[in-house]
Amino acid sequence: MAFINYLIHLAILVGIYSILTVSLNLAVGFTGLLNLGHVGFFGIGAYASALLSMYGVPVWASIILGGFAGMVAGILLALPTTRLKGDYLALATLGFAFIMGSVARNWTDVTRGALGIPGIPKIVRGNTEFLVVVLIIAIITYFIFWKISRSRFGKTCEAIRDDELAAKMLGKDTFMHKIAALGISAFFAGIGGALFAHYITFIDPSIFGLGDLILLFSMLIVGGLASVKGSAIGTIIIFLLPEPLRFIGFPSSILGPMREIIFALILLLILIYRPKGILGKVDLA
Amino acid sequence: MNRTLIGILSLLLVLLVACAPAQEQKAEPEAKPVEKGEVVFGWLGPLTGGAATIGVPVKDAVELAVGEINANNVIPGKNLKMIYEDDSCDPKKSTTSTQKFVDVDKVTAIVGGLCSGTVLADAPIVEDKKVLMMSFSATNPKIKDAGDYIFRNVPSDNGQGTAAASLMQKLGYKKVGIIHIQNDYAVGLTDVFKGEAKKLGLEVVATETYNPDSTDFKTQIAKIKAKRPDALYMVSHPADAAIVLKQISELGFKVPIVGADASKDDAVISGAGKAAEGLIVTLPGVPKSPELEKFASAYKAKTGKEFSAYTPEAYDVVYILAKACGATDCTSTAMKDYLYGMGPYTGASGTYEFDKDGEVDKPYDYFVVKDGKWEQYVAS
Amino acid sequence: MSIATQLILNGIIAGAIYALVASGFSLIYSVTKFMHFAHGAVLALGAYLMYTFAVGIGLNFWLAILLTLICSSFAGVLMDWLVYRPLRKRKASGAVLLIASIALMILVNSLILAFWGADVKTVPVRNPVFDVLGARVTLIQVIIIIVSVVLLLALWFLMKRTKLGKAMRAVADNKDVAMTVGINPERIYTYTFAIGSFLAGVAGILIGIEQNLYPIMGLSLIIKGFTGAVIGSLASVPGSVLGSLILGLVENIGIWWLPSGYKDAIAFVLLFIFLLFRPSGLLGVKVREA
Predict the structure, then answer these.
(1) What are the two backbone dihedrals, phi and then psi, of residue B75, each rounded to the nearest 5 degrees?
(2) Pair C217, C47: CB distance under 8 Å
């Protein structure tokens, strides 16, 4: 049935984005690092995996390597920026995402620049099989993050978020924790990016753009900061919300901006009226 | 979990499912027991963005064809339905739309894409799912090898790059600068042009590019101007072409400019004003014929306007696909086999035949902007 | 034509454009202490309103400008009242306000896209070209440079010599102390947004005429704008103007050697370097780090 196909398509995207959201949560919600450049890791994972698999690396391996590419980028970004104050950290991470976009656009020998990379090999033949793959990976991811949230590492990160000076005075190595948090967060974002590339089979530098940033933050904040369950719920709600629009029959030129308008509005409303989101333990302040 | 959350989720689920029957009807028209059966095609092209001024008239031409085909029962016993998707000439959007066409709408054939980049990005998808795709305007040479199910009724840019280079040589230019948009179409075409220029003894002294959506080309133009070329080869979409021409004039760069098919558009003249005067472009030839006359008057009757670039080709594509559907059991694979063996087809855009790669061979025409209007140009 | 002169001139023009954006952004930051990203959206809105008034409806050119500037100021104030003020009441941090302003910008950009469509629009004006020291410059470009200088002086006058300016500086320095001398911070914020958004409107009109209109113009301009501000000094209007000028020059001279596609990359790399090594900018006081 055609409709089932469409639901599968939606479910795959929800699965991929839920991985992104929960990984962003580790950095922002648990550790208090306002990382606006998460799409940078997403994009790096996507490009790395796409390029590797087009050069013959088996897809499974290239996805994992995509995750590692993201992680390396995350650590490299974290090293100089974790000492920055709130909005400056935000700007620097945003700048990072833009720089990555620029690299993708200009390093044409490798990335084909603005032309993008078409024909990325799929992991499995059918969409239903792909959905199963994505769901398995998402469940594993969520399990890992759930474990982290209950571990000593996770609790220390939350302590850093709440009062870094106090944590330092208690002898915690806050620097290493922040690096690790961003690194882990970036690894899973890279995996998410790789899955995305192999699903859509085409990527171009626009993957590094601001568009997905608002999407991610809406999902993150609606679901609730520092809540693993919340990230899954936030992703589902944000994705499902504009779908009825598609069937009302808006022309597609309105459809695109309509989705963005809805996400932006939801984010604003949540920030103003319920900054903790649905299951969150803290708000951004 | 609290009750509000469950309430919200259930409401969303209900909404989604409530829309399902409506979607079912749209996507499974074969289930209609009444009257004729239905065949579904998809159309892919830019209705927004820098190339929309080419895409919107093409959509009109396609609608015209669909209307005529149904009114005259060209496909015996079947009603033709066309679903239109806007890809803004962006491969990211076109791949999503193509997947929708293939998985959800289950189209038998896709008319389009308009832009080479979108065709190249969509090709793996339609090849994998064995869905027929025929473009009326994508000219990148690589499309020749894009797949068994990919056709086009416009010639590859191998011809267009050659046409531009030989025109430049004929007009006596020795040193040439190039400015082009960064996309598959322009890169493919300028690569051919550079190769041909070298063979003809022309020297390419500068090549500058810009990203789609750019609006400031002054430094690129300044860099080219500093190399003092005799002529400029410009490969741009209408929106940017207009600004490039304007800024060339602002910078006092007096140089003859040759452009490509995508720039043959009234939007270039209206956007650049006097700066467009003298621009020469190459365009796949559409010879005068009774079929073209018939199309031109039908198009004018429908839209009130003269037909623009690629509308005759797009009109033909719909008819060709309809013919293939009528002559076979109207499945993609059968239609594709039919097309390879079809022999010469005579339509609004000329008489041509598909070769073993799904390509056609057509000559190129030249047009020039004279007194604010496009005119046919003959290199003397 | 001397290419070097042309590039320097291009750099000055670009710098002046960024300065138009950065000055309003910087003004708002200095008083409210957060980054009003949506300033870019107000700019874009100004450009599109100008298009509608002057081209769509066909009003008298100067009337269109007046209307656009009034609407832009109002749009900025609306943003403050509807979004930032409620957040301030909740004692939201600068980080929250930043995210909210990004959301606002995407919201307004998408509204512009939905309303006006994605194709590039032009506002045609008579634009004679001049020869200056071997380089070419148009009337509009000259106007942009002159306006950015005039605005800089006007803002300086406002901040240093008027009562309002003094009140704004008081709130910028210490909101609570300012309250004790009877200044109402919320009113000052309103004035700040009005003036800053007026500047955004001016920028939008001029840039729209010079570079044509496209829906995401606000985004690329605000990025260049705050990069210029960071380079010069975020909280100082003269600093942000200086920084913008430097940015414009480095960009245009830089791509003489680098492929032109790297123009934006230059800006981002500069932003990143300054944020890491000198976040207070060239002219600013050193900022305390986390």
Answers:
(1) -100, 105
(2) yes
Q: Torsion angle, CA of C200/C202/C207/C208, rounded to 10 degrees?
A: 100
**A-proximal residues of C, 54-93, CB under 8 Å:** 83, 86-87, 90-93
How many Å apart are CA A146 and CA A153, to the nearest integer? 12
The pLDDT of residue B1 is 42
Residue-wise pLDDT for A92-138, tens only, equals 998 899 899 888 988 888 888 878 888 888 887 778 889 999 999 99
The answer to whether B238 contacts chain C (CB < 8 Å) is: no
Query: Given a cut of 90, is residue B195 above it in pLDDT?
Result: yes
Give bridge partners of residue B368 from the DSSP assignment.
B280, B375
B351 CB within 8 Å of a chain C CB: no
Percent of chain B scoring above 90 in pLDDT: 59
User: What is the pLDDT averaged over residues B304-312?
Assistant: 91
Q: What is the pLDDT of residue C244?
A: 94
Q: Which two tokens stand for residue B250?
A: 């602002």
pLDDT at position B28 is 38
* pLDDT above 70 as % of chain A: 94
Tell me which residue in A36, A102, A164 faces C264 most closely, judged by beta carbons. Answer: A102
- What does the pLDDT look like over C186-206, one tens digit per residue? 999 999 999 999 999 999 999
C46 with C204: CB under 8 angstroms?
Answer: yes
Among B180, B315, B258, B237, residue whose Cα is nearest residue B53: B237
CATH 3.40.30.10 given to domain B158-284+366-376: no
Residue in C48, C88, C96 to test binding to A, most A beta-carbons within 10 Å: C96
Give A253→chain C minimum CA distance, Å: 7
Distance of CA A40 to the CA centre of its chain: 9
Strand, helix or coil for residue B260: coil
Q: What was the pLDDT predicted at A246?
A: 64
What's the token pair of residue C131?
């020869």
Chain B residue at shortest CA distance from C254: B219
Does A252 sit within 8 Å of B123, measured CB to CB? Answer: no
Q: What is the pLDDT of residues C151-165, one digit of tens each?
A: 989 998 988 889 999
Q: B37-155+287-362 sits in which CATH class?
A: alpha beta
Architecture of domain A2-273: Orthogonal Bundle (1.10)
- Token pair recorded at residue A79: 């090293």
pLDDT score of C36 more than 70: yes
- Does A237 contact B12 at a Cβ distance shorter than 8 Å? yes
pLDDT at A142: 94
Does B228 contact chain C (CB < 8 Å)? Answer: no
Residue-wise pLDDT tens digits, A22-51: 999 999 989 888 899 999 999 999 999 999
pLDDT score at B22: 42
Q: What is the mean pLDDT of residues A71-100?
A: 89
CATH class of the domain at C2-277:
mainly alpha
**How far is it, in rounded angstroms, from Cα C231 to Cα C53?**
36
Rounded-to-integer distance, Cα C200 and Cα C193, Å: 10
Tokens, residue C145: 């440079």
Question: Closest to A247 (Cβ–Cβ): which among B9, B22, B124?
Answer: B22
The Cα A117–Cα C63 span in angstroms is 49
For chain C, the structural domain boundaries read 2-277
Interface residues of A toward B, Cβ cutoff 8 Å, are 1-3, 5-6, 9, 105, 113-116, 118-119, 122, 127, 200-204, 206, 233, 236-237, 240-241, 243-244, 247, 251-253, 278-279
- Is residue B315 pLDDT above 90, yes or no? yes
Please state the domain extents for chain B: 37-155+287-362, 158-284+366-376
Candidates B368, B375, B158, B373; CA nearest to B258 is B368
A175 touches chain C (CB under 8 A): no
Nearest CB to A115 within list B27, B106, B117:
B117
A209 compared with B244, residue with greater pLDDT: B244
